[in-house]
Amino acid sequence: MINIYEVVETNNMIEKENLDVRTITLGISLLDCIDSELSRVKEKIYNKIYEAAKDLVQVGESISREYGIPIVNKRISVTPIALVGGAACRTPEDFAELAETLDEVAHKVGVNFIGGYSALVSKGMTKADELLIRSIPLALSKTERVCSSVNLGSTRTGINMDAVRLMGEIVKQTAEYTKQDDSLGCAKLVVFCNAPDDNPFMAGAFHGVTETDKIINVGVSGPGVVKTALEKVRGESFEVLCETIKKTAFKVTRVGQLVAKEASRLLGVPFGIVDLSLAPTPAVGDSVADILCEMGLEYAGAPGTTAALALLNDQVKKGGVMASSYVGGLSGAFIPVSEDRGMIEAVKQGALTLEKLEAMTCVCSVGLDMIAIPGDTKATTISGIIADEMAIGMVNQKTTAVRIIPVIGKGVGETVEFGGLLGYAPIMPVNGFSCEAFVNRGGRIPAPIHSFKN
Amino acid sequence: MKKTIITVVGKDTVGIIAKVCTYLADNGINILDIAQTIVQGYFNMMMVVDTSNGAKEHEDMADELGKLGEEIGVIIKCQKEEIFDKMHRI
Q1: Residue A262 and residue A148 in one domain
Q2: Does B29 touch chain A (CB under 8 A)?
Q3: CATH tag for B3-88 (out of 3.30.70.2190, 3.30.70.260, 3.40.30.10, 1.10.3720.10)
Q4: Taken in order A418, A420, A422, A427, is the CA torsion positive or negative?
Q5: pTM score
Q6: Are strands A21-28 and A71-78 parallel, antiparallel or unpaired?
Q7: Is the ipTM, as predicted for this complex, more than 0.95?
Q8: Does the pLDDT value for residue A276 go beyond 90?
Q9: Which of A254, A355, A420, A445 is deepest in the core (most CB within 10 A)?
Q10: Domain, as residue range, for A114
């Protein structure tokens, strides 16, 4: 039988170390909502999502009460809207109407984000894909809870550089369209290489076409728990360090597995995956950067950071994999800047630069995340940053992403406040040398040689 | 058997266990195990109870015990056993 020390340990993790289930995300296929008439598509989308998700928030809250574990977010991901709206939408404005429908139903069922305003264009863009992409600035400025993502490349297909160039402009435009809110729209827009079909985390969640009709995916977190565990092994060898992370990740993931199975049972929706990610929040003690410091770095960004992050990412996966029957999504350590107090501090101290963050993305679970840059950064420079990140993902056969916010009207040294889980960030300098002629070449970068595994 | 773990954390005072036990007895909830310890100067108690013949739903019991805790000046939590079992047992 469970003993009192185990009970106290679990409850300390929850109460003092910010252990939580970060999100229960209900994936819903909208492929059966396709219609040639826009009004009918909107109606079908609204009804399907409402029917599937009307109990989601209440079920999440009831699980939270029964087990005494906070479930921070309840969210929805849907089939990439470029596929769903393609037959009905003739203009970017048509697509933006679908975004408004998603926003409306998200408010109705009480979820805080709905992801899937997306296009998958890793090799080429259809007319519908391009219309959707061009509608993103309008869609994100007219909605509150809709998240958008675009997959621009993969190890198998190479990188669609036409789409990379376009997304540089779209990120810039989205910033302009939402400039009264410090360009907040860009915090809900992410581009990927090797995007997974079952990611429960925003802004990049969408319900992949390889998925079943409805699915429950759960994202766990717990940087504070790992940090506290490591405090007890200061000065010990890497073997001890790694074992400690592994054991902690196991415990954290088991909670995610329990919640996922329970949500699946109560909603009558199959269980998909647990995404075992260390996802920070701006709260004190909920920082991935603090884990790196606990390992022995003065600040995140100091020499040794990439190695520390690599081992953290790997041990989280090794511990988590055995704790869940199905693992997927992004799984690993997230390194968003604005959502992590330790990262913000490292930037303020001058320890962490965009270039170092790029190196860190080679070994972490995703990519350049929630980074505020000067509002006058050129669209082609943003495309260049995106292309670099896509190349890292393509060559290393991993998911990479860029969620970068050119804050209109602000420059290096100023701070931007996004609020809530999105946090705040000092604006970081960007390398000012031009990549315009490179980005404007057009076409696509071929898949790397090691993609040919047949 | 449906097991629930009740934890009480706070400053030690007279009658904490008595009050919690009275509540449980009144609601037909059987106590399977009790353990207590002092962690960092705080009184920690854990009870394993069987709620299968109890008169209350889990959520009501959790709310009422929470209120009882407020009256005594301690924190009382009610959690289904699985969260501990899954985390600490393979």
Answers
A1: no
A2: no
A3: 3.30.70.260
A4: positive
A5: 0.94
A6: parallel
A7: no
A8: no
A9: A254
A10: 15-193
